[in-house]
Design a protein that fits this description.
The protein contains 13 helices and 12 strands. The chain is α/β, with parallel strands linked by helices. The protein is globular. 35% of the residues are buried.
């Protein structure tokens, strides 16, 4: 079968969408399918030709982004007035036009017109949404000539996102986009209501995030006598703000080690971390950009893991799959449900309230089969 995957990020980037695209492409190639990855972002200095040969796939880079691995764009202006003007302009641009959504999605469609050969299945990973809009524009011009099955893979709706407010007309833009796909795959049934106004329910398929579970290397047991726990993922100011947890940790008199694994430095969250690292000292250890294989091993060395859950119901953090793979107990909570007594119990080895995580549905062999069943 000829399979194409359209993604903004891919290996070696440390991002859930990069993991998903990489695992799907790698597994389909292992199964003997003809796989092509269309990639929006080129990492400077990375050898994509070698990766292509190692995975036995074709990688076609669409010329949209080029950056250093782990680099991010941070506005450095220190003048408060200029910063306010800059962020106000950025917010207005994002609200009205979603940044460069229309210009870049048109470039994606044009590139695909020249690069895309006949496929049996095309999976487009949202985040950014321009992937879906670009492919929809391509399909709008070519669908009548094709028997290809087009699948939009999304973790959060664009217009109805609870993280970013957008102009009303994007509701109809998103509906137009989904009209051009045969299916929409989302990671959890909890997200269905968020998509209900945008796409017929019969088009929605529940296909979770997935990973190769065959080659995972774990620590057999925690490696320290000091209570050690960890968090891996990202923090947000609104739906996943960790400050309430750090305030509680500052009240504890007993020794512990809290490892925080983040993909990159965010100026807002870094200010929070710096504040509490001064207070907690060696009890709080911050790590950035750790490879996933190394991260899994490090997490398995801890006594337990924590998950600060989203305040929305439309997203299921992919780190929960990683947590389940490590086989370590997980305490999951948000600001409202955090229980100091339960946390203390975890610190003392009582995992009665550990979150159950069944990782079987997330096995890459199961997930690739779910996609193939749609063709």
């Amino acid at each position: 079968m000829k399979i194409a995957i359209l993604t903004a990020v891919f290996h070696p980037e440390l991002h859930p969408r990069a993991f998903r695209a990489y695992e799907l492409a790698k597994e389909y190639a292992i199964q003997g399918h003809d796989v092509e990855v269309f990639l929006l972002t080129r990492i400077k200095g990375f050898d994509y030709e070698q990766l292509s040969q190692e995975l036995h796939i074709k990688i076609t880079i669409l010329p949209l982004y080029t950056r250093e691995l782990g680099a991010e764009n941070i506005f450095q202006q220190t003048n408060p007035l200029l910063r306010w003007i800059y962020w106000g302009y950025r917010w207005l641009l994002e609200y009205l036009l979603a940044g460069n959504l229309f210009a870049y999605s048109t470039r994606i469609a044009e590139c695909l017109k020249h690069e895309m050969q006949q496929k049996d299945m095309v999976i487009a990973l949202s985040t950014p949404f321009m992937n879906l809009l670009g492919l929809a524009k391509y399909v709008h011009a070519h669908k009548a000539q094709s028997k290809t099955i087009y699948i939009a893979d999304s973790g959060d709706p664009f217009y109805y996102s609870q993280q970013t407010k957008r102009a009303l007309y994007f509701k109809w833009v998103e509906k137009w986009v989904y009209r051009h796909f045969d299916y929409l795959s989302i990671p959890t049934s909890d997200a269905i209501p968020a998509y209900a106004p945008l796409i017929p329910k019969e088009k929605i398929q529940i296909i979770p995030q997935a990973f190769n579970m065959r080659d995972v290397h774990l620590s057999p047991a925690p490696t320290s006598d000091i209570p050690t726990f960890a968090y891996a993922g990202v923090f947000y100011q609104d739906i996943r703000n960790p400050e309430f947890l750090f305030k509680h940790l500052c009240t504890l008199t007993e020794d512990f080690r809290f490892h925080v694994y983040l993909r990159h430095r965010d100026p807002h969250i870094t200010s929070v971390l710096d504040k509490y690292q001064k207070q907690l000292g060696e009890k709080l250890i911050i790590h950035y950009s750790v490879k996933r294989t190394d991260l899994l091993y490090r997490l398995s060395e801890c006594h337990f893991l924590i998950n600060i859950s989203n305040t929305t119901s439309t997203q299921l953090p992919s780190k929960l799959i990683d947590y389940g793979i490590t086989k370590r107990p997980v305490y999951s909570f948000d600001k409202q449900s955090f229980n100091p007594q339960v946390f203390t119990a975890f610190m003392h080895g009582d995992y009665t309230h550990a979150m159950p995580i069944d990782i079987r549905p997330y096995d890459i062999e199961v997930v690739t089969k779910q996609f193939l069943e749609l063709v």
